[in-house]
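Data availability (excerpt). The following record was deposited with the supplementary files.
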Amino acid sequence: MAAEPDLILAGPTQEKIYDQLSKIAPTVRVPYGFNAFRDRFAFVSEVLDKHKEMEDWTAEYEAQATKDKERILAKTGTETFAIIEATQKEIRIYSRTGIADMIYNDLQLPQALGLPEPDAWGGKGTSLEGLSTLNPDHLILMADSSDNVLEKSSIWNSLKAVQAGKIYRMTSRQNYNEAFFALGKKSLMNQLVEDILKGSQ
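Predicted structure:
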């Protein structure tokens, strides 16, 4: 049975078919804001007339983040964190979007010193040597498989986080598909917090 939506929310990737979508149901363009979760969340809640629900969710999420931050810092103190994405071709270090936004802004955990200035996507390509210079105490690794340029290198095993067993793995898909949306964001934070606490025992 064909879907009969009352409203369609269309992102930038649907721009070319906007006219087609608008013939199916009223269609609202969601502003492009890859690294602006809260702005996009507020926009969508306004469109759906769910502002109160958004405020309640945000208050609950921020309260949980504060509690989780205290639990983590009680174990890790001033130890630093870095968020890396590794593919077969490159290494990117993130400091602004997705999981990085969660770690540095929501949980307010210490950044590894010397993080590069991010590009519009919230990250920056780096070399193996650049990563070894950062050498964080904790490393959140986004990789869809172990067949990547980072884990196949000799530098990988020399990193403090690897030697201490403080590597927290998730897929790139989890970051892009979950960390930018309310339900996924909460679920990912729960997973990361438990992984970090377990790794810091």
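Summary of structural features: The beta strands are 8-10, 27-29, 81-86, 91-94, 123-126, 138-142, 167-170.
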